[in-house]
């Protein structure tokens, strides 16, 4: 029994050491980026890895002036695209989950089959369509494709979750005279808040970090998103790592803060059984 206990303790020790090493390797780049963001050129040259005083906070004001228009553009595009995805996905998921009609399952499988098509294959036809609609250098040239591309996965999530809502609640609402729209807004939507939050977070992450579509749709620097704008920012401050890393931190903070605030709902949605893989 003692031998087993010693082996188990040794295994635990090795596991803890391995986890701490992995944690250090994961966290160190972010800590290093934070340290470098408060250094000027001379401080970074003489002490590239350690902490230097005083902190050079002017890097953040300089970075903010550069990345602010990129962030405003990205916030608008992300908010509009996410709102459209949530509205269309929740309504479609509700209909496919709570109503029985001919070809319901066929329609659902056709919709989710669109998830199997790699986005890169539709990039050229999508660009031609955006060009023909004269949406080049327009935010709507991104919002429309983002909504269309996010709806299939959104329907997949919403339908799977809403199928598990108690049918008695909707029957009682219909008996009390509630319309379909009222039962959707007052029962389905409030009860589906965890999965809606999950859908919102996933789409915000995808839209905020996308670089492929904005790089071919947006050519005007004043209309670029964060992902594309940071490329310009990098070329502008390629020798001054302080403003460069300060810009990276500023553009990452909105996603980090939002995820911290909504993490409980996100975990609840992910563990609710809505993902049927």
Automatic annotation (TrEMBL):
Coiled-coil segments: none
Gene3D superfamilies: MetI-like
Xref: Pfam families: BPD_transp_1
GO BP field: transmembrane transport
Main localization category: membrane
Topological relation to the membrane, as annotated: Multi-pass membrane protein
Cellular localization per UniProt: Cell membrane
One CC-aspect GO term: plasma membrane
CDD domains: TM_PBP2
TM segment ranges: 12-31, 70-95, 107-130, 142-162, 183-205, 241-262
Key words of the record: Cell membrane, Membrane, Transmembrane, Transmembrane helix, Transport
Highest taxon listed in the record's lineage: Bacteria
Assigned protein family: Belongs to the binding-protein-dependent transport system permease family.
PANTHER family: ABC TRANSPORTER PERMEASE PROTEIN MG189-RELATED, ABC TRANSPORTER PERMEASE PROTEIN MG189-RELATED-RELATED
Protein name: Sugar ABC transporter permease
Natural source organism: Paenibacillus baekrokdamisoli
